[in-house]
Amino acid sequence: MLDRSFPGEILSVTTYMNPLPKSTLYQPPKKVRASRQGDDVFITWTPVDMTLDDDRGYFIKAQVCLHGYLVDVVYHTDINNFTLTDEQTCDRPSNGTVQAVEKHGYTDPVQIPWP
User: Fold this and answer.
1) CA quadruple 108, 63, 103, 31: dihedral positive or negative?
2) Which of 20, 48, 72, 99 has the fewest CB atoms in 10 Å of its CB?
3) pTM here?
């Protein structure tokens, strides 16, 4: 029989996110902007010009408010804009970054000016 008990407090477990492989071949996205319409946040940036062979799109990492809780979310997109849901019921502010992805790694993240 498998023992499913956990000795201790589950909330005391720390998490670790391994750093993403860094790319220095391309610059990070520029002119990152965000606007809000209700619970929808629309994010845009200037496309990063890279070779078709290297291009792997964009990576968005954010903390957004869902059902009253600030939760971590990650998204991928191949175009230079993205819309996500961010309710306005949390005590702490939402936030996020966007970075370009190429076959060797990720550019530096750029902070999204959260609306």
Assistant:
1) negative
2) 72
3) 0.83
CATH number at residue 85: 2.60.40.10
Name the domain count of the chain. 1
* Burial profile 72-99: b = 16 or more Cβ within 10 angstroms, e = fewer: eeebeeeebebebebeeebeeebebbbb
Structure confidence by residue, pLDDT tens digits, 68-106? 999 999 999 999 999 999 999 999 999 999 999 999 999
Domain carrying residue 71: 28-111
pLDDT band for position 5 (cuts 50, 70, 90): low
